[in-house]
Design brief:
Keywords: Signal. The structure is a single chain. By secondary structure, the protein is mostly helical. The protein has one domain. The chain is 91% helix and 0% strand. The chain has two helices and no strands. α1 packs antiparallel against α2.
Length: 75
């Protein structure tokens, strides 16, 4: 094997590895996005049923955290 052939093989292997890693991380990202959206919907559903001021503060705090996660996971 020549040096050129070895170099091409190594570069090809690296590119394939990076491509496979990006596909697996995008699948995880989609699952994370779906989970976050479900949690947001759940809290919003609870809020539509009415809540005390204390519960309201708790819900808003949870939603703020989830909106940040949603920004990271879904965009």
């Amino acid at each position: 094997m020549t040096l050129k052939t070895k170099l091409i093989s190594i570069v090809s292997a690296i590119l394939l590895f990076q491509t496979s890693m990006s596909y697996s991380s995008s699948g995880k990202k989609a699952k994370d996005c779906q989970k976050v959206n479900q949690k947001i919907e759940s809290i919003q559903k609870k809020m539509r049923n009415g809540y005390t001021p204390k519960q309201g503060r708790k819900y808003h705090k949870q939603l703020n955290k989830l909106y940040k996660k949603q920004f990271e996971s879904c965009l």
